[in-house]
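Researcher: Before we compare anything, I want clean individual predictions. No alignment, no superposition, just each chain on its own. First chain goes here; please echo the sequence and then give the structure tokens.
Model: Echoing the first chain and its structure:
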Amino acid sequence: MPESGQTIDYGKKIMGWKVPEYDKHERSKNWYKIAIIVFVILIIFSFFSIQFSPSFKINFSPNFLFTAILVIGALVIIIHDGQEPLQVNFIITDEGVIVGKKFFPYDSIKDFSIVYKPKEKIKNLYFEFKNVVKPRLSIPLLNNNPLPIRENLLKYLPEDLERLDQPLSEALAKMFKL
């Protein structure tokens, strides 16, 4: 582990820009009303979840784990809603990519893809990792030209040409403003 003040060489910087730590969605009052209604319905459901026994009897038993997950999810949304996302550096180097304080070497990245659909407000760079447990890395391109980014990354990584649209998880998060 490096001592404080000691810098680590992650390679020569090729290009970089600042990106928000997470997507912040603008939510209307109606969104909050609907979210509260759904939350209350799910909480009620979690206290009266139905279980069928082998003898075909219906048992009502509370599911406290589901309740805890709902409460934690609601708290995360409330906490994130009250603050602006931090701006972190995204840097492409000749040895890997840096996001904030994390470095991802090219040998841990399977491939990259760029989805650039400005009319649909989709302009993202995606990195898939060789380790399937590690989540996909999504970097907004903002106002950057995707062509030089693609040209530079092709020197180090293969491109996934099959990805033509954003992942379903991102589309749903955008649609539900989560």
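Researcher: Okay. Second chain, same rules.
Model: Second chain and its structure:
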Amino acid sequence: MKITETELPGVYLITPTIFEDNRGWFMETYSKRVIKKDIGIDINFVQQNYSYSRYKGTLRGLHFQNNPMAQTKLVRCIRGRIFDVVVDIRKKSPTYLKWISVELSEENKTQILIPKGFAHGFLTLTDNVEVQYEVDEFYSKEHDRSIRFDDPDIGINWSIKDPILSDKDKNAPFLKDSDCNFIYS
């Protein structure tokens, strides 16, 4: 397993080692021991989520859960390809409002580890996309939040003019108008 920190401190790309033979392949997608040893994070995942997006151009996000139900996420694309985005939304952070993007796909099998205090979203690059992710806190409707994917203060270049959005994402506030409660310490 190869672990690489991104330009956003605390956000990591995890590329599994693939063991392949004539039957197919095997990979370890998560190891608590490796994550704790290599990056010093002790994560206890409590819920696994799975999404299916029928059409290319579907945009999901930007999502997060406010404290005290904030979530660390380990995200991977198991079918198709996605343009995955992570945004630092921790007030007073040296990287506040900075974002990174990475392509996750069934081919590259790369995953992204997203800590609490970051918003997450993705755009499907193919039809029939399946995304699976683990979280270390249960879903809480009361703490569930969205911010606009096209927030000008963040300035993400999604490379699409008219994405397919849920009503929740169409009506999401800009970050400056949200009740996001993350503060960098």
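Researcher: What stands out in the second chain?
Model: Residues 74 and 113 are 4 Å apart (CA to CA). Additionally, The chain has a mean pLDDT of 96.
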